[in-house]
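WP5 quarterly update. Target: SH3b domain-containing protein. Source organism: Chryseobacterium defluvii. Length: 278 aa.
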Amino acid sequence: MRSLFIFLFLFFIQIFSAQEELYANGIFQFEENKIQKIFTDRTRVRQGPDINSPILDSLQTNSRILILKKDDKIIQLGERSANWYKISYQKGGQTREGYVWGGNLCVGYRSKNGYDFLFGLSKTEPRKDKQFGQSFGQNVAGIKVVEDNTLIDEVLFDTGSGESLNFARFNIESGHKLQNVELTLKAAVSGEACGIAGYDQYVLFKDKKLIALPQLMNVGDADVYYHSEHFIFPNDKGGISNAFIWKMEEMEKDEKDKEKMKRSSKTYLWNGHSFKLK
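Structure tokens (predicted):
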């Protein structure tokens, strides 16, 4: 009976959600008159803001574009919702214009040491919940590294959906001194409401290769619950050489408003090429 109730609950939630007004994910909100970059290779440039509009051109990953105007029309592909944008770009010595879907654009990009690093959402994959047997769409994000307009590596990782995609951050972090690691990248997505999980993804860059570390999750619900995960790297306070430490802290208040704390940690060994749990 309990399983039947859960199935019916999820079924009606899906129907209700389908009838709701469509909103664009916050991470795909781009400012007008600002430079942006293409994330999805061979992104189609269309004559109008519609998937059935004639294709004018296609742009490769890392192409620079100028956002001219955000169109009111929103479409959802998989678990990604975004507006259409009118853009301007240079190609063949000419300035051209057209429309692209916002989900194909970078949500963050950085340049360092002759490399361009791009962060975006790559696709939605069908997954199945093992406990209840329900199918769902899992957003898969990616970080790409480009040198001289040539893609040299890409790493994929699961990320949030819906309200977890209100904000995005993408940075090159300093002060981390793992052996043979040239750069440490950090991509993050998060929401703005209580109880909405945020995800941090660290990626190491060495020898023109990207290496994704275990993903971190953080969530809080006012002052009654929170779950926090973070890494301690070498040269950070408490760090150790050729290793990094995962730390978790969780607090939950019981029915008597008494705090219950949980803490744990794991050490990952780094040999200059890969990591493993100690």
